[in-house]
Amino acid sequence: MKQHELADLFEQTADLLEFRGENPFRVRAYRRAARSLEGLGGDLAGLGEEEIRAIPGIGADLAGKIAEFTSTGKVKTLEALRRGVPPGVLDLLGVPGLGPKTVKLLHEKLRIDSPSKLEEAARAGRLRGLPGIQAKKEARILKGLEMAGRAGERMHLGLALPMALEMVRFLQGVKAVSRVSFAGSLRRMCETIGDVDLLAASRRPGRVMEAFLGSAFASRTLAAGPTKSSIVTKAGIQVDLRVVAPDSFGAALQYFTGSKEHNVRLRERAARQGKKVNEYGVFASGTNTRLAGREEEDVYKALGLAWIPPELREDHGEIELAMRRRLPELVEAKDVAGDFHVHTAWSDGRDSLEAMAEGGRARGYAYMAICDHSRSLTVAHGLSVDRLRSQRKDIDAWNRRKRGPVLLQGGEVDVLADGSMDYPDDVLAELDVVIASIHTGFTQPRERLTERLIRAAEHPAVTILGHPTGRLLGQRDAYDVDLEAVLRAAKRTGTAIEINGSPTRLDLSDGWARRARELGVTLVLSTDSHSVDQLGHIDFALGVARRAGVPPSGLLNCRRLNALRSWIAKKRR
């Protein structure tokens, strides 16, 4: 996962350069490199020099810094920049929504050099009157400080899941291990994760612990025991490993997956049946006879329940449904026929239209919607009407090859401040799919933001409302919108709502996706991918849908192409 660490370092380098007033072209070069690295799959350590130089935005200078980082774990340029600013300024640069220019202003005018001094000044109203800072921005700064305080506590799925899978693969290669899985909130696909929990089955736990503690993942050992050990990775993430006997693996996997509330309900049910359940198995209370434990399914069966998928284990009524064999049919990866939210190099994507289409073909998709940004979002190189029509030629050329997937031309079209769409109606009518999204004006009043989304839903050409709350996990809270009213408008108008699989968004949340399902709103799984590697974000969208109990029938991209086109045509009528 070195690319994620390095992307963070490059972003920090750009922040420090901007704080110092350095060449803006140099600042942009580091930011572009950071975005490219975030979209990179695999590990930089496995790439040669030519492959590194082929990454968009990586020239000879930055390639050298990547090589320096992969061999030493440091970048001298960044180390020097850090030494040149007060330590507290680095913390200020990590406050969401603050920005290097504002940090510089605060430092120069008020000598603010730490989050605590910033909070004190903001609460005293001393920031108002500085250029560009009034009461509303002062309140946003306080909100950013609150978010910064929470940011180190949990990580999003996009960081946790790849790391856990890499560690699982490592442990699978240890001869003493017979079975291994990740557990905890990660296995339940919660949107943010605290620590990574791993579980292994072995009759020689000492060998497993020796391999784990000596692995390249371990930067520091927190605890080392015969059956449980904890390490901290180089990225500062705690990983706990438990080793159990093979006969107890299923019970331990159920127990350590949780949630706490779900497990309490299971123990209560077991007690009523004269049984007890723990991480070692299910036992008859009187005789202590083991009734189950090797397989997770057997644990639930011994308690008279159908097996409950991990994503549902939150004490939201799933145990009662399992008693009656009425658990919902959850969507699976094989049910997904295509992806609706795909960006290419035509706007702010990293890869070409053809490369993204090939990525969809490799995933077995029947169709994909190319939805690059619309013209007003200039920061993302949004498409003018002429460029949009030129892109159609490339899409038609791909479709003539008849290799699949069928490409639909769409657009992620901005919902403007007054609620109108960023393209005129005749241009919208030319598109196969329209995703309506808000990218600006997040601080408008609740009524205005709600009205913008409802007006978008009411537009006959709009197929999908994209990332409807605008949140970025750990960076930006959802904007103030009456989402219940928006969902009801979507149901009334036949507009789909996106579950955005970008791990920093996961928007809708599982709670709102569950509410959408209850109202009968059609949902869409999307990746918001800007590179071929990010097409894998569909797994995160699937996790949200499964936590919400959404069946394939409730998802637009689980339909065949003809049924999809009929659905879109019905909305437009």
Characterise the protein shown here.
The protein has a seven-stranded parallel beta sheet, with helices on one face. The chain has a five-stranded mixed beta sheet with strand order 2-4-7-6-5, sandwiched between helices. A three-stranded antiparallel beta sheet has the order 8-9-10. The protein has 24 helices and 17 strands. The mean pLDDT is 91. With 573 residues, the protein is an alpha/beta fold. Helix 20 (446-458) packs parallel to helix 21 and helix 21 crosses helix 22. It folds into four domains: 2-151, Orthogonal Bundle (DNA polymerase, domain 1); 155-244, Beta Polymerase, domain 2; 249-323, DNA polymerase, thumb domain (Beta Polymerase, domain 3), CATH 3.30.210; 333-572, Alpha-Beta Barrel (TIM Barrel), CATH 3.20.20. Helix 20 links the parallel strand 14 (433-437) and strand 15. It is 45% helix and 14% strand. The longest helix is centred in the N-terminal third of the chain and has 18 residues, at 2-19.
